Amino acid sequence: MMKTKTKLLAVALTAFILFIGVNANAQSFQKGKLRFGIGADGLIPVGNFSKSANFGLGITPRLQYGLSKKVALTFTTGFYHFFPKDQVYNDGTLSYKYKWDLDLIPVKAGFKAFVTSNIYIGAEAGIGFQVDNGGGDSKFMASGGAGYVTKHWDFGVRYENFAGNGYRNGLIGLRVAYGFGL
Q1: Which end of the chain is less packed: N or C, by CB atoms within 10 Å?
Q2: Buried b / exposed e across 81-93, counting CB within 10 Å, b at 16+?
Q3: Cα(6)–Cα(141) distance, rounded to whole angstroms?
Q4: Which CATH number among 3.40.50.11810, 2.60.120.510, 3.30.420.10, 2.40.160.20 corresponds to the domain 38-143+154-181?
Q5: Who contacts 69 (Cβ-Cβ below 8 Å, separation ≥6)?
Q6: pLDDT tens readout for residues 132-155
Q7: 174 falls in which pLDDT band (50, 70, 90)?
Q8: Which N-terminal stretch is annotated as signal sequence (predicted)?
């Protein structure tokens, strides 16, 4: 059921982005210039991760450096908080409920490349530092996605995977950001 919902959401967002892109004003990077954006993220756990987390919220500042009018390097950090589901642990003698908790600080580098004047594809990779339950754990993070931008707004969707300590989790991220040149 979750896979069907995720696929429908991805198709609907892609269609929306393509529809808007047909009537959009030109957008491009300025070579050698910096751009800063601050985003709010809705994080939808997928796969096994959806068994332990309901959803997540994030805030993600991003710095971009234009390599050309069509390509930029990105550096993203911020904070992700996931809202856990109740879990039941049974060790054979005792059974009790607990909540799995995950708060991450992502630190990622990547790129954005425009395929039309307002629609881009992008990818990022980096490390997520776990800060809950005493912290100390880190996870490799990798994502790929697409988005639509205007002069100040950036609407993006991505699939992100993070792995560490034998666990691999995935999510669909929906990002709305406000940006400006520096």
Answers
A1: N
A2: bbeeeeeeeeeee
A3: 20
A4: 2.40.160.20
A5: 28, 29, 30, 31, 114
A6: 766 678 889 999 999 999 999 999
A7: very high
A8: 1-26
Q: What span, in angstroms and rounded, lies between the C-alpha atoms of 93 and 26?
A: 65
Q: Which two tokens stand for residue 12?
A: 């609907």
Tell me which H or E stretch contains 13: helix 2-22
**In angstroms, what CA-CA distances link 4 with 1, 9, 146, 171?**
5, 9, 20, 14
For residues 103 and 54, give the distance between their C-alpha atoms in angstroms, rounded to a whole number. 14
Q: 3-state DSSP call for residue 136?
A: coil
